[in-house]
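The following record pairs a protein chain with its ligand, zinc ion.
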Amino acid sequence: MEITIIHKQDNIIHFLVEGVDVAFANALRRTMLTRLPAMAIDEVLVLENTSVMYDEMLAHRLGLIPLITDLESYNLPEECDCEGKGCSLCQCTLTLEEETGDEERIVYSHDLSSQDPKVVPASGDIPLVKLAPNQRLIIEAYARLGKGVENAKFQPVSTVSYKYVPIVEVNKENCNQCGDCVDVCPKNILLIDGDTISTQNTLDCSLCEACVEVCEPGAITIDSKKDAFLFKVESTGALSPEEIVEKSSELLKERIRLALDYANSL
Ligand SMILES: [Zn+2]
């Protein structure tokens, strides 16, 4: 298996995986979604809430805030020595204490203060609740590691998708250079240069085949490689996109090894 990074920007990474089949590509996608741990608020203690929002709704909103995750410093509760009761190795406390005077105010995720400076909201601009004048909020929240298979709030990825690598071929003998394919292509893959049709940025092709439909029969063929996939991964901010790809590949390798060991023991 070979991985080539095509493009990376902030929380989004595009990469090419070669030498694998579709089952492996899908297993990698599902590992990123459901098996890779991330931190999220899981228990909330509402000490005071005079806002219009119900405690349950507030707890739900707190749970959905992506928290920056440090996989090295925290254990999964089921793997911790405390047996999931909650200790400093598997749990982080965040507090929120807000009170309004004469003016209303919106409470944002950056108002949460964390016991561990490394475990903070990935974005401070998430609105939680609007407080009217003279309202008060005192909350203690406990974050822990969890997996997407348990609850979607633990997913470190907001998008993970893959597509086949397109192969676009123009047959010069069947092409009459009408240029219709250039106009119809939504991704601007085709261009007309004098009396020849050429291709550019073919990785952007969405395999819609609009060019094939509008063209002379046999002039353009769209195919795809069977052993290469283009991935797009967008992180929630909990982990870096590189970390997501690296850790999920390791997890998948480990799960395959365990499955093989089990199959051999039968
Ligand atoms: Zn523990």
